[in-house]
Amino acid sequence: MTGYKIAFKKAFPYTIPVLTGYLFIGIAFGVMYAEKGYSAWWAVLMSLLVYAGSGQYLAVNFFVPGISFAQVIFMTLMVNIRHVFYGLSLLDKFNKMGKKRWYMIFGLTDETYSLLCTTKVPEGVEEDKFLFAIALMDQSYWIIGSAIGGILKSVLPFNAEGIEFAMTALFVVIFVEQWMDAKNRVPAVIGVVCAVLCLQIFGSGSFVFPTMILSILVLFATRKRLEKEREVEVCQ
């Protein structure tokens, strides 16, 4: 347990940006869920067992007449298909984590993925425990936010129109933060260009999956050049 205690202590500062973001978007989800007539406990349970970020926002609209099970599966897959690509890049790390890898796969969100890929493990901390701490704390922030939002909406009725934009706002903040910290911004530019292109071709309802495919193909084609530029930056 001492190893985990140190891991959580060292990992916490890195998760503070996610803490501030997840509390608010978790609150937004809890409010949206409560508007459908469900108690705060259902919002908490969904954040505990589903934990799909934007997928949960989308799921709020599933609790209406006329939505088939097939539609639920397809829409959820389209929204969260990017997690497949996230997981592929972390296979080596997760395979070394033993039984914890199952939770790491389950808890892989956009923000957690960003931290797992960019955060350097501090000295004196075991990598598997450090990464596990990041993932578990991130989910706990989301669960707490969901509970707060559900309770607030239950005891303080208010107009929550537009609150779903909180998720989009968080993605924008994370992108801007990584843009400012990154020395090589070519991958980000590639992602933006691919997204805009696919948005024009496929429309706002189905451009995510084509964007991921196109981005990967372009990045793979330019991988050697990007790796050379990275080596030059490290030497400097």
From TrEMBL:
It holds the Pfam family AzlC. The chain crosses the membrane at residues 12-34, 40-60, 72-91, 130-151, 158-176, 188-221. The keyword Transmembrane applies. It is a multi-pass membrane protein. Keywords: Cell membrane, Membrane, Transmembrane, Transmembrane helix, Transport. Signal peptide: none annotated. It is found in: Cell membrane. The keyword Transport applies. Its main location: membrane. Belongs to the AzlC family. This is AzlC family ABC transporter permease. The lineage of its organism: Bacteria, Bacillati, Bacillota, Clostridia, Lachnospirales.
